[in-house]
Amino acid sequence: MGKRPDDLARGIRSILGQRGVVTDVVCVGNGWDPATAQPPLPPEVTTLHLPENLGIPAGRNRGVPLVSGEAIFFLDDDAFLPSDTFLADGCRMLAERPEIGLIQPRVVDPTGRVSPRRWIPRIRKGDPSHSSNVFSCWEGAVLMPRAVFDATGGWADPFFYAHEGIELAWRVWDTGHVAWYAGELEAGHPVIDPARHAYYYRLNARNRVWLARRNLPAVLVPFYVGSWTAIQVLRWARQPAALKAWFAGWRAGWREHPGERRPMRWRTIWRMTLAGRPPVV
């Protein structure tokens, strides 16, 4: 949205400075024209102006048709790549392990602050450098084979923000691939204040319901929504304002249309269960 020009410039420099790969870069402005950026963006960067802020996942999707290549990489404007071989290393991993359909790197704060546990997308967090299968992803730095991204249908446009990384990972699994947390790859991102507001709580709940309605067989929808309802009630039992906003979003999730429904196959659910996390929590 053009509100972090220094961070944006750093992130773009880290992409253009990658060695061992050819990059094709587009900067998407969500309600902002990147062609007006100060300092100006490098001439080799294509810009896309979206007059209206369509939300994070929709903005990412709009940029995809403007780039070419066998792999596609998404980078938030406040993230960057400390290593100039990140993309070459990641693409090598995709080539050597064709079962991988999505890579999320380990995320570190450039000033050395301790990274939040939420940046490790698994229930048992463990060592941040330990790699594993995952069933969601931190969306700020994501590398995928272009063919797999196309097969998933892309990011969840209607979500605006919150939980689009879960849906994308689920749909990667449904293509027959796995989503992978690569502890040996590193992306930089500052630790930010996790303070929440009513809008966050509302979208968090609405998108949980939409996630189930869009992606799960009908019989599993109440199990997934029910388990997360119980978790949130326990988590925020002493925050009535948060729960009030959350349940407003919960109701909206049932009343409003979630967009395209693509229920995953039972074969996928079995694969995810064997890998450690059935899609019911």
TrEMBL record:
<keyword id="KW-0328">Glycosyltransferase</keyword>
<dbReference type="InterPro" id="IPR001173">
    <property type="entry name" value="Glyco_trans_2-like"/>
</dbReference>
<dbReference type="InterPro" id="IPR029044">
    <property type="entry name" value="Nucleotide-diphossugar_trans"/>
</dbReference>
<comment type="similarity">
    <text>Belongs to the glycosyltransferase 2 family.</text>
</comment>
<feature type="domain" description="Glycosyltransferase 2-like">
    <location>
        <begin position="5"/>
        <end position="150"/>
    </location>
</feature>
<comment type="pathway">
    <text>Cell wall biogenesis; cell wall polysaccharide biosynthesis.</text>
</comment>
<protein>
    <submittedName>
        <fullName>Glycosyltransferase family 2 protein</fullName>
    </submittedName>
</protein>
<dbReference type="GO" id="GO:0016757">
    <property type="term" value="F:glycosyltransferase activity"/>
</dbReference>
<keyword id="KW-0808">Transferase</keyword>
<dbReference type="Pfam" id="PF00535">
    <property type="entry name" value="Glycos_transf_2"/>
</dbReference>
